[in-house]
Write a structure and sequence with these properties.
Elements lengths: L5 H13 L2 H8 L3 H15 L4 E4 L2 E4 L1 H28 L4 E8 L3 H14 L3 E8 L1 H9 L5 E4 L8 E15 L4 H4 L13 E5 L4 H13 L4 E6 L2 H9 L4 E5 L4 H6 L3 E2 L7 E10 L6 H12 L9
Parallel strand pairs: 3-4, 3-5, 7-8, 7-9
Antiparallel strand pairs: 1-2, 5-11, 6-9, 6-10, 6-11
The structure holds 2-phosphoglycolic acid (PGA).
Length: 303
């Protein structure tokens, strides 16, 4: 029987994910030659070529692709075993790996800071990324827990809705629509240009759906991966923006941005706490879950 170590399986998983020995080495705090050597040994031991070079990328071969499913299961089972051991010990030390949607980061760090104060011995890794990437991470059993907009049904996910996420239309102070007629509707926006988040963002997906359902053309001037950048672009006059109310607490307070009063807005989304079915919940994850669900709204200014 070929000898394969858990370490090799983890390296294989990382090379498959980043499609590069160099990037996998960075993520694993190893040297690139050490990663290459481990992959060579793994291929020799299995007697299978796991990767094929496609230009600068290292893509999984057909066999590599099939074996990745098993490596995911092994890593997941290993982590479940460690989590279970923690549970038996029943103590509140350990590590929490959490991913939050870009927009949710505006309040999540406050929650994590309060959580850390209560549980100082728990260490935390936080990844801030968009909806599409988070769904991919959940598929790979990566984070213990996720904060995001409503996840799609039928992907082996468990989700708990915990707080409103109102989406509002922002404009620079002095924008003509702020002073025009009362009772503005979405049709009054048909000639406006918008600064929007990138494809793959949950906010973007929701706005596009809303405009499409309303039969209004949605035209964009600028596409950006950060809410901060959108706020700057809107105040610089690039167009209107649609963002979560949770991202503009300071700007509203300082009157650097204004919210347009449009019928049908704010669009009401909700934040969800999401886990992957089959990934055991460690006491640390459970502690964070209870902490968050206890009173999430205490961590945001606008409810
Ligand atoms: P996002 O937010 O736009 O930062 O991806 C997540 C969501 O609303 O689903």
């Amino acid at each position: 029987m070929p000898h394969i170590s858990l370490r090799q399986i983890r390296i294989f998983d990382s090379v498959a994910r980043y499609q590069s020995h160099t990037r996998a080495a960075e993520k694993l705090y190893m040297t690139q030659p050490a990663v290459s050597m481990q992959m060579k040994q793994l291929e020799e031991n299995l007697g299978i070529e796991l990767f094929e070079r496609q230009g600068r990328k290292l893509a999984l071969s057909k066999s590599g692709f099939q074996l990745r499913e098993y490596s995911n299961q092994i890593i997941n089972a290993y982590e479940n075993m460690i989590d279970y051991a923690e549970k038996i010990k029943g103590c509140h030390t350990g590590h929490l790996t959490i991913s939050v949607a870009t927009t949710a980061n505006h309040f999540s760090t406050r929650i994590l800071s309060a959580f850390s104060e209560k549980y100082p011995d728990i260490t935390i890794s936080l990844d801030v990324t968009n909806r599409q990437t988070i769904l991919q991470q959940l598929e790979n059993y990566e984070p213990d827990l996720v904060i995001m907009g409503e996840p799609p049904k039928g992907h082996g996910l468990l989700s708990e809705r915990f707080m409103k996420n109102p989406l509002v239309i922002i404009a620079p102070p002095g924008h003509r629509l702020l002073n025009e007629k009362q009772n503005l509707t979405i049709s009054d926006l048909k000639n406006e240009k918008f600064v929007v988040r990138e494809k793959g963002s949950g906010t973007r997906e929701c706005i596009e759906r809303h405009f499409k359902d309303s039969g209004i053309n949605f035209s964009t001037t600028l596409e950006m991966t950060s809410n901060e950048a959108i706020k700057h672009a809107v105040s610089a006059g690039f167009g209107l923006g649609i963002v979560s109310l949770h991202t503009i607490e300071l700007e509203l307070k300082n009157q650097h941005l204004a919210v347009l009063n449009i019928k049908g807005f704010p669009l009401c989304r909700h934040w969800h706490l999401v886990t992957r079915k089959g990934k055991a919940m460690s006491p640390v994850t459970e502690a964070f879950r209870s902490f968050l669900l206890e009173n999430p709204e205490q961590h945001v200014y606008y409810k």
